[in-house]
Design brief:
- By secondary structure, this protein is α/β, with parallel strands linked by helices.
- It is 32% helix and 18% strand.
- It has a four-stranded mixed β-sheet. A four-stranded mixed β-sheet has the order 2-3-4-5.
- Helix 7 runs parallel beside helix 8.
């Protein structure tokens, strides 16, 4: 027998209504919360990616539009070739590259500044299932990084597939901390001081 469903009540959209964006209002966490509660899960939120040959300025505009500080550099087969961060774009790397190569800033490509895949370290998803936010904070602080990549291992030969990303700024927001300094060590020092650790 087929069940009969009643229609839901519909309201008029109010003038000035806005919309939510993913990650805009993250839930509060503590250092003892499950680590996976602060991971950006790429099974739920599409990865922000960019092409190897994209101009550096385009990468910067895309980060601003997406509200992210890290782009995965990928090829047409969705293979991760590396990553580029907002610190890479706004730091000394582009200036140094331009001076060494004698090129104009607008001629710099993502490939010129990115961190190549072979130089990236990743965390295993299975190691994070029972970990806590404090473990992730300690890992980022120890590495002196703003981000940590998380991979799954597939059944066929243990091939890696990028599953998620930890972001220092997102974790700080979820812990209820304002980020005052762009450097990870200062950010996490502030978090620990505020939490009395």
């Amino acid at each position: 027998m087929k069940r009969e469903y009643q229609p839901l009540v519909a309201l008029a959209l109010q003038t000035g209504a806005q919309f939510h964006r993913p990650g805009e209002d993250p839930a509060r966490v503590s250092m003892d919360s499950p680590a996976l509660s602060v991971m950006t899960d790429l099974r739920q939120i599409p990865a922000a990616t960019i092409d190897l040959e994209a101009p550096l300025d385009a990468a910067n505009r895309f980060m601003i539009r997406r509200g992210v500080r890290l782009l995965l550099v990928t090829d047409d087969d969705r293979q991760v070739l590396g990553l580029i961060t907002s610190n890479d774009i706004s730091g000394e790397k582009p200036v140094k590259f331009a001076l060494e190569r004698g090129v104009r800033h607008q001629d710099i490509r993502v490939r010129d500044i990115m961190t190549v895949g072979e130089r990236l370290e990743v965390l295993l998803y299975t190691d994070l299932v029972h970990a806590e936010v404090g473990h992730v904070v300690a890992t980022l602080k120890h590495a002196g990084r703003q981000h940590a990549l998380v991979v799954d291992l597939s059944g066929d030969g243990g091939a890696q597939a990028l599953r998620g990303i930890f972001s220092a700024s997102k974790i700080a927001r979820q812990l209820g901390m304002a980020i005052q300094a762009p450097e990870v060590a200062q950010t996490f020092a502030e978090i620990e001081a505020a939490l009395g650790r």
